[in-house]
Amino acid sequence: MEFSSKLLERAVNEMSQLPGIGKRTALRLVLHMLRQPKEQTLALSEALQTMRNDVKFCKSCHNISDTELCEICSNPKRNEGIICVVEDVRDVMAIENTSSFKGLYHVLGGKISPMDGIGPHDLNIQSLVNKVREGKVSELIFALSSTMEGDTTNFYIFKQIKDFSVTTSTIARGISVGDELEYADEITLGRSIINRIPFESSIKL
Predict the structure, then answer these.
(1) How far is CA 32 from CA 12, 37, 57, in A?
(2) Torsion over CA of 144, 147, 149 and 151, rounded to 10 degrees?
(3) Residue 2, Cα to own-chain centre: how many angstroms?
């Protein structure tokens, strides 16, 4: 792809680094921004820069937040005894959109995947185990994607907390095996949360 401007080429190259954005789409987006009022492009740039510099991760659940404790964890109406364990912040958003869950979350930041060099110590697992050890958690809901890596992660956490007095459950398999949680429709995902099953019933020990 030939460019008449090095500045344009640089902008397109940077834009094409985003997931799902190829060079042609990046060029279309950059040209669109060039046609917009300068103030609009500057506002986008400022919003991205401010987000990158100031965004925080909740010290309790590891969700993205503007403050040290996110709005979900600081909400007194949430049931702090029930924790839904998810892989990614996008999963928190997906479950929240169902309005079916009133507990708290714990974002692992990924799932165990030896093929990708990701082990238990690369994830936010120890802080979850510490919460259980403190005795304030009555139930853990495993809501990771129903993939081999997700099931491996669920089982690893289960083994770490099985000696503590805590109920473990997993979302009902209304979510197809192999599906990513974020792509499930809200009704199916909501029913999976409501109709969760004991984790022990989903595995063969």
Answers:
(1) 12, 10, 33
(2) 60
(3) 38
> Is 151 in the same domain as 130?
yes
Tens of pLDDT along 129-184?
A: 999 999 989 999 999 987 889 989 999 999 999 899 899 998 866 555 455 666 66
- The parent domain of residue 18 ranges over 6-54
Residues near 32 by beta carbon (within 8 Å), at least 6 away in sequence: none
The pLDDT tens digits for 94-124 are 999 988 899 999 999 999 999 999 999 999 9
Is 157 within 8 Å of 142 (Cβ atoms)? Answer: yes
The torsion angles phi and psi of 76, rounded to 5 degrees, stand at -65, -15
Do 35 and 79 lie in a common domain?
A: no
* Alpha-carbon span 104 to 71, nearest angstrom: 10
> What's the CATH code of the domain at 42?
1.10.8.420
At residue 156, the pLDDT reads: 95
Task: Give the pLDDT of residue 184.
Answer: 65
Q: Are residues 23 and 109 in the same domain?
A: no
Give the DSSP H or E segment for 186.
Answer: helix 186-194
CB 99 within 8 A of CB 190: yes
pTM of the shown model = 0.77
- Better pLDDT: 188 or 51: 51
**CA 40 to chain CA mean position, Å:** 29
Q: 113: which DSSP letter?
A: B
Is residue 27 predicted with pLDDT exceeding 60?
Answer: yes
